[in-house]
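Deviation from plan, reported transparently: fe (ii) ion complex.
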Amino acid sequence: MSDIINTPYTGGQSYRRPDTDERRRLLIARFARIRAVTKALAAGLTPEDCMLQSMPDASPVKWHLAHTTWFFEVFVLERADPEYVPFDRQYRYLFNSYYNAIGEQYPRPQRGLLSRPSLAEVNSYRRSIDEQVLCGISGGRWPAPLLDTIEIGLHHEQQHQELILTDIKHHFWKNPALPVYRPLPVPPPRPAPALRWLAFAGGRTSIGAATGSFSYDNERPRHDVLASPFELASRLVTNGEYTEFIEDGGYERPELWLSDGWALRQKKRWRTPLYWLYESSARAKSSFTTHKVFTLGGIRSPNANEPVCHISYFEADAYARWCKCRLPTEYEWEHMAAHSGRAGSGAFLEDGLLHPCVAKATESGVAQMLGDAWEWTCSAYLPYPGFRTSMDTALGEYNGKFMINQMVLRGGSCATSRDHVRPSYRNFFLPHSRWQFSGIRLAR
Ligand SMILES: [Fe+2]
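Because the crystal trials were delayed, the predicted structure below was used instead.
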């Protein structure tokens, strides 16, 4: 992993909104750093790699490189200057993801057909927009709302950095040669700490982003919820624990599954998490033995102590039911995360492992609330009471319009930037999604 990605974490407080010169100086540094990380993630990939699209959900790397740039061109440069001349007029359509207020969009499932513009042209597009944005910030004449939009654009870019990794992993998985994204370090083996139950006696607790630091509109307004007494597992479910579920016929027992999940399991013939390579064995009820796992660093032997990941909501829910537990609500999860701090955090993008790690033993007992793997909650992705998008008309489409049919995930993963995620952060995916680094923390 490049040194650019290993830039030390500075606390995630970049949105202190210092005014004027200091704010501009910090924003310039942050802009340059985050844009360089994206470039570093694509370094080493061939132009052919960057065009792959293995499924409609997973976009080509080239498209991510262009779309994150499009964001700054359309939402910053066009607004800063009514006379702005676009880099290429077609890009407004080609690289618009879903913003209807901006205009029509090129169909998402066909992004892999865009052999033109070339990767070299997309890289020149990036350089041109970078220069203009940096020049605009340092010029000192852009109003505060435009600087706010740049801040959103940088968080948006960090989301796409994670997608670059999860998407290229899926693209490579579809190649029988199972290419290696890049050689990655593997931490020395260690046992996972025993699972403990962390109790909350119940009562009123506050949920949502506090003012004073950056948050998305979907994390606000902060509000109180009333929680019944609950317990949360001290760490994520491991591969070893999940294997017991499989060997007990977890994928063969409809009574454990939600109806939609069971139908999907039948249709897709799921028998393990995504990216497990396995062979049959007469020993287990489900005739299953894993012998290898596909990672961004290539094929590895499975590690029973690492968190299980790349599972759908349906699998997480079935596993929890098999354990006679359940998945946490997002309120329970946030309460525990807000009170446990960053102690025992798992791996983030900056650690360069690009694979979840074995939990660390901590004094408080709680581990991996942030990092390693996103945690499915049993909460539907819905607006908080009093939710109003704080963004303008077009940017208001960023989060709010997806508040239907999706489930909330919390905590970030080994592909998330450390300064991008926080206890109030709400990620969301459709319940069948498996290609993100998504895992399980139990509740009861
Ligand atoms: Fe986007």
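The radius of gyration is 22 Å. We consider this an acceptable substitute for the interim report.
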